[in-house]
Amino acid sequence: MLSSKVPDTKSRIGAQNPVLTNSTAFATGVRTAHGMVSRPTDAEIFQATELSQLIDIDSPDQLAFHQALKQLSEPFIQLVCKVIESPDNWQKFVSCPSSVRGHHSEAGGNLRHTIEVAQSCAGMASGYTNLVDHDVLITAALLHDFGKIHCYRVGSVFPWQHTDQSRLLGHKLLGVSPVIFHIQRSCGFTDAQALGLMHCLAASSVKTFDSRGPACLEAEILMKADQLSAAADLYRLSSEAKLSRGGFGVRHPHQRQVPFHIKGNQQAPAERPTRFGEVAPEKRTP
Question: Is the pLDDT of residue 279 over 50?
Answer without folding.
Answer: no
